[in-house]
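Input/output pair, single chain:
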Amino acid sequence: MGLTVGTLLKVQGERLKLELITGENSLDRQITVADHNRPGLALGGFLEHFRAERIQIIGIGEQSYCLKAQPKKLLASLSAMLRSPKLPCLIMTHNLKAPTSLVQACRKTGTPLLRSKLDTATLVGELSEWLESRLAATETVHGVLVDVYGLGVLIQGDAGIGKSECALELLKRGHILIADDVVRIQHRRGGVLRGSCPEPLQHYMEVRGLGIIDVKLLFGIGSILDRTRIELAIRLDPWNAQTQFDRTGLETKTTTILDVEIPLIRIPVSPGRNLAVLIEVAALNQRLRSQGYFSAETFNQRLIHRMKDR
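Output:
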């Protein structure tokens, strides 16, 4: 079942200070997009490119127009605007009094009309954030998500290769755990991947030989985060003499999650390798790359210039 106006009113009604004015029989209308719309031109009857699938926000400007417009003309424009069954609802801000024509049009078309005590900017910001969190494309992957020097690092690999043990070592070195074993990833606005942990597993880790451990109690409240932006993927692969691994850093690999590309580093796992230190260095190196500095490329150019000079 999708997100409905009734769900919005029930879950966010108190936080967004919402009340229902009319439309109690249409609260099952679906909300399909996180964006909102200010129907300024639509109130005047211009419906070309009108985004009916969005929640319509009625602020001070829209209310002032409704109060000064000719009632019959306004009612006709509102009825045409609200005719689409895809339109979820209207929300008035600033605890404004609903114009009579607007209430009549909403009742005529069965459109839910809500009112919020919040100002328009605050309501739009809070509402958009919540809707995006509910409607964003989501994928669940197997792995560990840690925050290393402020960089969200997704660690993946075959079962038993040591992902949780690596995360445990990173925790001991002062870094932060977001999710162990199951990582919930959302594609947020602007091509951002946000990773979190499903509710039942938050703040817990499963380590072979130790069982389930409570990270918050063992390492303190500063060792956990609810979510972080994923900016680097680490793939732990078993060491194999026949497998070629990058030794210069000149080769740039990426992986695609929810149509978003992020850098990928493959690290061979063999006895004696300190994976936590390698991941720390990988995170720091990625921060340099994001600022435009490529260590391997700079070193390569220096070698080329040195060879030309000789």
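The radius of gyration is 27 Å. The chain has two domains: 3-134, 137-300.
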